[in-house]
Amino acid sequence: DVGCGPGVAARRAHTVGAEVIGVDPASVMLRVARVRWRSGARLDWRRGTAESLPVDDGWAQVLWSLATVHHWGDVDRALSEARRVLAPGGRLLVLERRVDDINAAGTASHGWSIEQPESFAELCRHHGFSNVAVGTHPGPTTLLSVLAS
Questions:
Q1: Which of 19, 42, 50, 67 has a CA positioned 20 to 30 A from the CA of residue 106?
Q2: Closest by Cα among 98, 106, 105 to 138
């Protein structure tokens, strides 16, 4: 879970049997996750960034980033890291909230414009992901996704 924040998604994956590493650059978020979700060896919290993941090569079957890709400083480096930590056949899942005003400030800017998933998908292909799909998921908040393997 890249950009795990307080660990909600990591904890959910853990409750259905996954071994999970939650990674976040903010030590305060990791402290919150550790206190909130005391759970043992199959759920681990580590400080790091998308560009420098503290995870062994080929460890992950799935690497996800939920509403955090817009914070990645170097998308190329982060995608190289994703390839490094994913096992053969592993999948990358990215979800971002759709935003209409890409010039918005504060949390209103947190997300992707309708064009950005295709650009991200193209970068995924450039980094060796072959099966890349872009999706739109309407709801109270429209989500945009990229799934790559």
A1: 50
A2: 98
Tokens of 2: 């890249």
Query: In whole angstroms, what is the distance from residue 147 CA to residue 134 CA?
Result: 7
Give the strand pairing for 60-66 and 86-97: parallel
Structure confidence by residue, pLDDT tens digits, 13-70 = 999 999 999 999 999 999 999 999 886 668 999 999 999 999 999 999 999 999 999 9
Token digits of residue 27: 């030590």
What is the rounded (10 degree) CA torsion for 118, 91, 77, 119?
0
Q: Give CA angle at 13 (30, 7), nearest 5°.
A: 20
> At 85, which amino acid appears?
V
Contact 93, 109 (CB under 8 A): no
- Classify 29 as helix, strand or coil: helix
